[in-house]
Amino acid sequence: MIYLDNAATTWPKPQQVVMAIEEALVHKGGNAGRGGHGAAMQMARLIYQAREDLCSLFGTNDPTRVIFTQNATHALNQALFGLLQQGDHVITSSIEHNAVARPLWALKQRGVEVSEVPGVPGKEFDLEAYCKAFRPNTKLVVTLHASNVTGTLLPVQEIGQIAHEYGAYYLLDAAQTAGVFPIDMGRLAVDLLAFPGHKGLLGPQGTGGLIVKPAIRLEPLIYGGTGSLSEEDRQPSFLPDALESGTLNGAGIAGLGAGVRYLLKEGVDKIRAREQALCRNLWNGLREIPGVTLYGSDMVEQQSPIVAFNIGELDSVAAGFILEEKAGVIARAGLHCAAHAHRMLGTLDQGVVRFSPSHLTSEEEIKATLLAVKRVAEELG
Asked: Are the folds of 15-266 and 267-380 the same?
């Protein structure tokens, strides 16, 4: 198997991550915040260590404002439904993942006003149109950091600065960039950061989080047991307890923390440079194959490590199936839960095939992948 679907979930995981999960399951045990015995305290320490690790990675200094969630979608829903109310206005982009587009649609049915900044290939976010979209009741701007379809980066620093000039908060969806690009919340104009644990952070599935800057209060998405103020019916108002009801994925969070420490040791820039070099090889090879159409910019060193393409008029899902069946190449194909982006690209009917290597992908695997695509294209031709 040649695994090129790391934008969906990274695999294989570093051995340190696997060992941390095993250590938590086999030797730690306990339920953090549920009891004062040694096993519960051991798990609580593992979880707090992961909060501190994430603070180090994302340039923030308050571990209590690192909220653990099931995934980035959960984090985005917590931020959107926890902040927006009827009569509020929110601005977003035209290439959002359904993790943002669908919650915003639901909020629109509840009286929240939504504006979508137009975009076209090569100019996915029109800053001039963005500035004109603000209203007196604009409370939030929410965008992804990089497209999960093409890897295109949005100008997040400018987006956040402009949002602040108009008195709005900025929520950043870092699903494709957390652990891939440096994100320093001490320098970026980002108020809320949503991230998955199982992609660039190299942790297991079922982990993710939301970092909330001071002075922002969110209504909980879920209410319940937190291990604190158990004598009261009301939800605790302090973080992280206010937004973390129920048992946390302790073993998964331990693995996530190990993944973050791996990144801090190896270097985010070093890992990304390796992945972008592999994407450069993929892009250069694919554009030489007759019948292949590439999407996004050819400046692969300036985008998330993703290469999107189609083979002639072949349905992308069919292309992905053929590549796996004939050559063992694992890719993501279809609409990638991002119909808005496909409308802009003109690929809503066909979808796209997406390759996303990891720093552990070999040059030989890239060569074999290109040969497989060439054979499929030749058979079609």
From this structure: no
The residues with which 115 forms a beta bridge, in sequence order, are 91
Is 290 exposed, middle or buried (CB count within 10 Å of its CB: 0-12, 13-18, 19+)?
A: exposed
Helix segments in 110-199, DSSP class H: 127-132, 156-165
The string of pLDDT tens digits covering residues 138-154 is: 999 999 999 999 999 99
Which CATH architecture is the domain 267-380 placed in?
Alpha-Beta Complex (3.90)
Strand partners, 125: none
Cis-peptide into 14, omega within 30 deg: no
**For 196-213, what is each residue's pLDDT tens digit?**
999 999 999 999 999 999
Give the number of C-alpha atoms closer than 13 A to the C-alpha of residue 69, restricted to the C-beta side: 25
Per-residue pLDDT reduced to its tens digit, 131-142:
999 999 999 999
- Residue 203, C-beta contacts closer than 8 angstroms, at least 6 positions apart: 13, 17, 197, 252, 253, 255, 256, 257, 258, 259, 260
The CA angle 134-135-136, to the nearest 5 degrees, is: 135
- As a residue count, the chain comes to 381
Confirm if 84 and 139 have CB atoms less than 8 A apart: yes
15-266 fold: Aspartate Aminotransferase; domain 2 (3.40.640)
Q: How do the domains of the chain map onto residue ranges?
A: 15-266, 267-380
What distance, in Å, lies between the first and last C-alpha atoms of the chain? 26
Distance of CA 279 to the CA centre of its chain: 19
Beta strands in the chain, from DSSP E residues, in sequence order = 2-3, 66-69, 89-93, 113-117, 138-144, 169-173, 192-196, 208-212, 292-295, 307-311, 329-330, 332-334, 352-355
